[in-house]
UniProtKB/TrEMBL annotation:
Main subcellular location of this protein, as a coarse class: membrane
Enzyme class: hydrolase
Described function: Involved in targeting and insertion of nascent membrane proteins into the cytoplasmic membrane. Acts as a receptor for the complex formed by the signal recognition particle (SRP) and the ribosome-nascent chain (RNC). Interaction with SRP-RNC leads to the transfer of the RNC complex to the Sec translocase for insertion into the membrane, the hydrolysis of GTP by both Ffh and FtsY, and the dissociation of the SRP-FtsY complex into the individual components.
Region spans: Disordered: 51-113
Organism name: Pelagimonas phthalicica
Residues the record lists as binding GTP: 224-231, 306-310, 370-373
Domain of life: Bacteria
Subunit structure: Part of the signal recognition particle protein translocation system, which is composed of SRP and FtsY. SRP is a ribonucleoprotein composed of Ffh and a 4.5S RNA molecule.
All residue ranges annotated as the Signal recognition particle SRP54 helical bundle domain in the record: 126-203
Protein name: Signal recognition particle receptor FtsY
Example GO BP: SRP-dependent cotranslational protein targeting to membrane
Reaction equations catalysed: GTP + H2O = GDP + phosphate + H(+)
């Protein structure tokens, strides 16, 4: 099964919620009618603005930090269970001195895990978009269609709010769908296509792989509330970076809970990556300092530091994170190079609050959204992208080591809205 198919299956709860809602809206007062809106044209127009946005986003950043390096070629085979679509890490990319500092680690996947894992080109706009391909099949002429009026628009807004898109985003998306289409008859599949195109447009600017720097070791601080999936995500990322030829070290910085350390050790073993630990209750900043020293001595490429997630004691957590940063900066003034916030999609709009809070207590540079499989709350990603514009580096779609996917806005939008691919 293609990766899109898997993602769609895993986002089934989100898409079926939208599906059922849209069905109910259109059936309510709808009747068999021919198409009145050229959805292909509308989606093509939205895609065009997306491509423009993507081009602007991919322009080199002006400020120059460390120089980029050539990133090793991804492993040709997944390290573990070959069945799931693998997300492998960095894309090989030669550098030139005057190129921007940052090399984006292209988290790529194979549509068929048995095929070679081919690094995706960042210029995704050069191939026809997924939505375009889906719509290119030609639609059914007569479907149940309902005239788009204020009542229907309101129902659509409500449905999107219920899907965790957040009020502001839901209103904006509905308004964009309605623009120029009031009084026209729309079918469920037409609304889905327009919705998917709008979602993809919002998500495009935030779909950015974890940036890789030539700095060795690159320090990645991982933050998030307890249970959000930090440990699992660190394990998955470690496995993928290792598969791409990177030397990785993990620091078990949640010294407050022995179980958290043990769990991280299990993930480290799975990924084949060393995990540095300290006794329960010891100072996480001191562990982080030792881990950075070790990573430097060993010539590691990446150091991932797990942290505690006790948000209920926000002041303590803030001080703990600030101390970790202060202490590791004694060894590397630029560290941490990334601060990843791990969020649990099943918490819906609560994830928005978490971003707000963690941005206040740490310098969040990007997001990983976990547990998108089996939740009906996938819409929260749209809300996060629209509200904060923080990069979404990857999405967690299961509990296995390979269940971390790069974030692809079109696939996500199509899966979220339940668009059918032939
Ligand atoms: N279905 C699903 N489960 C996930 C995913 N990511 C993590 N989990 C599960 O979520 C639970 C919590 O994950 P952890 O990685 O332990 O979360 P944590 O943030 O480290 O939590 P603490 O150790 O309590 O700080 C575990 O049961 C994981 O298996 C995902 O993408 N999908």
């Amino acid at each position: 099964m293609s990766f899109f198919g898997k993602l769609k299956n895993r986002l089934f709860k989100s898409s079926s919620k939208l599906d059922e809602g849209l069905d109910a809206i259109v059936q309510d007062g709808g009747e068999e009618a021919a198409a009145e809106v050229d959805v292909q044209e509308a989606v093509a127009a939205i895609e065009e603005t997306r491509v423009e946005a993507a081009e602007v986003a991919s322009e080199p950043a002006p400020e120059v930090a460390p120089e980029p390096e050539a990133v090793p070629e991804p492993a040709k085979e997944p390290v573990t269970d070959p069945a799931p679509a693998p997300v492998v890490a960095p894309e090989p990319q030669a550098s030139e001195a005057e190129e921007p500092a940052e090399v984006e680690a292209e988290l790529v996947r194979s549509s068929d895990p048995l095929e070679d894992v081919v690094a995706a080109s960042p210029e995704t706009e050069s191939k026809p978009g997924l939505l375009g391909r889906i719509l290119g099949r030609g639609g059914e002429e007569t479907e149940t269609r309902r005239v788009l009026d204020d009542d229907m628009l309101e129902s659509l807004e409500e449905l999107l709010i219920q899907s965790d898109m957040g009020v502001d985003t839901a209103l904006r998306v509905s308004a964009n769908i309605a623009e120029g289409r009031m009084g026209k008859r729309l079918s469920v599949s037409e609304i889905k296509a327009l919705l998917a195109a709008e979602v993809a447009r919002i998500m495009e600017p935030v779909a950015k792989p974890l940036p890789l720097y030539p700095t060795k070791p690159q320090v990645v601080l991982v933050v998030g509330v307890n249970g959000s999936g930090k440990t699992t995500t660190i394990g998955k990322l470690a496995s993928q970076f290792r598969a791409a030829g990177k030397k990785v070290v993990i620091a078990a910085g949640d010294t407050f809970r022995a179980a958290a350390v043990e769990q991280l050790q299990v993930w480290g073993d799975r990924a084949g990556v060393p995990v540095l630990t300290a006794p329960e209750g010891s100072d996480p900043a001191s562990l982080a300092f030792d881990a950075l020293s070790k990573a430097q001595e060993d010539g590691a490429d990446l150091l991932m530091i797990d942290t505690a997630g006790r948000l209920q004691n926000r002041q303590d957590l803030m001080e703990e994170l600030a101390k970790i940063v202060r202490v590791i900066r004694k060894k590397d003034p630029e560290a941490p190079h990334n601060t990843l916030l791990v969020l649990d999609a099943t918490t819906g709009q609560n994830a928005v609050t978490q971003v707000d809070v963690f941005r206040k207590i740490s310098d969040v540079s990007g997001l990983v959204m976990t547990k998108l499989d089996g939740t009906a709350r996938g819409g929260v990603l749209v809300s996060l992208a629209d509200k904060f514009g923080l990069p979404i580096h990857a999405i967690g779609v299961g509990e296995q080591i390979d269940d971390l996917a790069p974030f692809d806005p079109e696939e996500f939008a199509a899966a979220l809205t339940g668009l059918e691919q032939s």
